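step: validate -> pass
step: tokenize input -> pass
step: predict -> running
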Amino acid sequence: ETLPLPSSSELYLARGYALFRSGRLRDALVELDRVPIGDSGRAEADRLRAQIQRELLAVAADRRSPNEVP
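step: predict -> pass
step: emit ->
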């Protein structure tokens, strides 16, 4: 018996998680954007996207100089 093949959305999610774990946040976002709206994996992609965006915002805030006004 053959094993079922993952859907393209499952592959996009898996690559998105792998890129996220390796610190390639922008690349992970690009991969997550490939999960179609209405797909069963879209909610998971959106949750990961939100987590990545929070991390990017935190990094940006850390890089601001102390004299900068938000």
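step: describe -> The helical segments are 8-21, 25-32, 42-63.
step: cleanup -> pass
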